[in-house]
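Our collaborator T.R. sent over the components below with a one-line note: 'Predict the complex.' Nothing else. No constraints on interfaces, no templates requested, no preferences about which chain binds where. So this is a plain run: every listed entity goes in together, and whatever single assembly comes back becomes the starting point for the next discussion.
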Amino acid sequence: MKLIIRDYLGSLKEREELDAILPDLLSELGFIVYSKPTRGTRQYGVDIAAVGNDDDGERKIFLFSVKQGDLNRQDWDGTPQGLRSSLNEIRDVYIPTRIPKRYRSLKIVICLCFGGDVQEQVRTEVTLYTEQNSTPVVSFDEWNGDRIASLLMHGILREEILPKDLRASFQKSVAMVEQPDVAYFYFSELVKQLCMKVGSRQKSRITVARQIYICLWILFVWARSIDNLEAPYRASELALLNVWHLLRPLIDKSSKDAKSISTVLHQLIELHGIVAAELLDKKIIPHTAKLHAISSAVESRNSVDINLKLFDLIGRIALRGIWQLWAADHSDAIGASDRRHRARKYVQTGFELILNNPALTSPLCDQQAIDIALFLLLAAFSGDAQDSISSWLHEMTVRLNFAFRLDGKYLCVFTEYRDLIEHPKEHTDVYRREATSGSILIPLIAAWLAAFKDESALKALVNLQKSKLQHCTLQLWLPDAASEDQLYIGERDHGLALCDIPLSETGEELFDTITEACLRERGFENLSSNRTGYWPIILLACRHYRYPVPPQFWINLLHPTSKD
Amino acid sequence: MINPTGLPDRTRLKHAYEIGELIPEVFRRFGLADRADILATMELCIEMHNAGEINLISLAGDRTLLSVSDEQHFAGQRLLVDAIPKLRASVPDMMLFVQALVEKGGTGYLTQSAQAAFGSWCANDLSRLKEVASLARDNNALAQQFLSVALIAGNMVTQGTSFAESNNQENKRSGVVALGRMEYKDSLLADSTIRTLLHEAKKTDSDDLLSKILLSTAQISANVEQANGRNICAIIEYACKAHGRKTMLSCARVLWLFHRHLCNDAIDLLLQALHSVDSSDREIISELDNALAELLDTKHDQSAINLVRDLLIADRTPVTIFDFDGFRRKLTEGSSKRIQQTFVFWMLTGKRPLCEAAGAFFRRTRDKEIPLAFSLQDIPVSSEEQIFLSKKTIGYLFSQPVAASSILVAILRVRNPKASMRVGNLLLNPLLLSYGGAVKDYLSSISKEDQAYAQVRRVLKHGSKYIKDLNSVGIIKELRPSERQRQIHRDLFHDQMRQAQKDAEKESVLLSLVRRSTILYGKKSLTYIEGPGNERRPIEMHLQEHGFEFEMPRLDLIDPVGLDYLLRLFRAETFKV
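Returned assembly:
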């Protein structure tokens, strides 16, 4: 276990990555962290400042100057950002001017902090520096990868709160990161077990949240080192949803732990964003403008694999954009503008992906309605994409119609992989009725077509339903009162299926039915993530656990008069 | 077996005859292996029959003949048929005997040879011919069956004409049939006979009789080079008025077997008549296919092509070009200019049956695809037609990408500025994008001197950029299907291949004929088989590998629905003049 953590610390690429876990580590060790890393603010060499007991039991101030990886000559004294310069700044400026009054009587420990080791070539200089500059008040300490790993092992990941069986799940998750399904399975086991250990104390909830956060970081860094981020991406969604489930009773409470709760939640949202950016921004998006490039990169001899991956991707891109829009609402004016701009870029990227990977206009599995709805939401929220939305919907309708009429790879309700790759397994009425027994995609598309006034496509869809899909139960899903306790942890025993949705060439009946149902069922409004403004969590749950996106997200966009 | 150690003698044959075993022994070829021994024994039987010691032909009346197995029957009947002309018998007895052989022999070769033997038997003694004719006139049903054979054997033109003019329909038919197979000393006699047939054709509306008149007329015209063409045409016109099934069959047969002896007008009339053929009638279509294939070697080739065209698009029971397989093969193996013209004209009609047929001209199922030497130099097509033709070619020949590409390149060689860019784009997408191997190799082989070079270069450049873009992505592990999914796919693929192999084996004609051995190890097999005299012979067989490879279109993987949609769109598109 320690080896994994040690290796993880050594692999952290950015200084910020080490910054990200240290405050939590210190908090769990009983330190009071009074200064955390922030961008853009000059801190005179100090990345983290905390107060706590030293090994000798005396209460001291700990000032951390953090560097990534091993400490070599360059990092020590090769640049103005070298560690030596930071230490000088701490001694010359920070200590005399920046220590809060209430801690000025305490002794100071300047901690040289890095994920790896001090390389032999600079060992002498470092030792000489710390000896020469030590005083009765100011001392130096070395927090290298090995020490931080030990602290993690004896702190936040200590055996009392992360027992052997859970460590085994975690270790398997890390070891199997090349096989994302397996890694995700063990990580989900870990998360499940950790969440089950939570007692009634608020503090324990926060501790578990931090553990999940640290474990996710470790998984991410390992996955990044082998260039396969699939497991941490899915794990980050799971982690965020479970942590929300854990912390939701405490959100918006005015307890003293509220700040910690908010912090850990935001850290997880940020980590999810980091993982998503590493996957989407660096690996996928640079190739979306190339014809068939992403489809081809699936490297499969089966068209179903390409179809499934592409719709999954469009859902991920949509969520990435949606988080940007959400963050824009929680940023200052400049930050908000930047976030909105980024969201629009994701919309543009998504449509590039659709244009260059035409399988995205041929949904195969009805559940892909979730990813389609997410991207439609993002596109509609960010504006300026009406034409692209309209074209996509139109083309999808044409192809849906075509595939149904020719008994080709038409939309089906199956979700099992084998069923999908065999589809259509038979060309019989019995099979066809089974394969098309229900749909959430058709009403979704119909509603959007109606809103975009694409009469020809809507008419074609209505005719298709009348001629070929009379037996198909057109439906939408709405959260109900039970959803709050089940949505974030992937339970299935909740929600309301709005059935037999009427299709017509104007869409009016469709809108009226949905509006009425939304007014009647208040489960959506009562979801904690909705009430507290963390609404992307609902969409994340929909994507991750494959719940249909509730129509409350889009009905007022499409049919403003239906606002209650 | 009569005599396991030597040839059967008179006594033994007589004994076999008396206990009713002689006919079965004939069919068993007396248990002898040597052909000379068999023939010698049969000669002895004939001698004994003619001497009155046994009666070979009376044996045919019992049920023994019908109980003979098919394998024995073929060899045994041959012996009996060969014996017929040498046997002494009354006309009724012989007719009964031959009838029994005909009943057993069905409608094939054995029946014909039995009837021919009866003809020879009659020809050996003219009184026999007269007796058959006389019996037929007296409405003896059996004699009426053998009347035509007898008339032909005696080359009795006058008698034949008389029967053809008689009121008895059975005798009339026999007379007509016989007239067609007789030798005519001069054209005057032949013309006179044809006039008789014309007269009879005018008098009847019987499909059966008309079909026979038609066939006999053609046979006479084949015998006599200077037959009166006008009367022949008149007969065809009368015969084809009612479009009777048998008449249509005769039309097809006449066209197939006698087209060389018919005048142009007669051929045109036959082709015209065959436009109304019942396309669900496999027998007629099969004969017509033979005829049309033959006509491709004549100056009537275009008429033959037009007839196929009209039948393919006729609003009746659908036929496809594969129902005219002989025609199709002959057409594709013949003049390249003719096949290209037909391809272009049929594709430009935009009519699905014709486009499908045109596509089938260049479809290969086994050989490695080779570019077609296609040229549009002598086929004037407008820019719109060029684009339309390109789409149709892709729609119907997508699975033959090199053939399709070579047709598009031929269109590019016309260098029509209004069409070149669009045709080039179609060459790129979907052809080159789908087939990065074969099509790219073909396009790369086009030389600088080629008229299409510039456009082909442009297409190749875009194709290279496309591939470069695909390769630039590198490996994105996150996009790969999971190991579980790959395993499920492998299992399914394995199951499907296994099922396909089983289905193929079920339908294999070869496997139904031979004993199957499965070789588990080794590169060759050694089997000992037992030959004559219990001698064991080693048979060594070297095993060869058989394989068939084809390039899967990339777009079928990336966007199967889109590709299917595009191809169907291309196929369905109609050309608006």
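Summary for T.R.: Strands of chain B lie at 524-530, 536-542.
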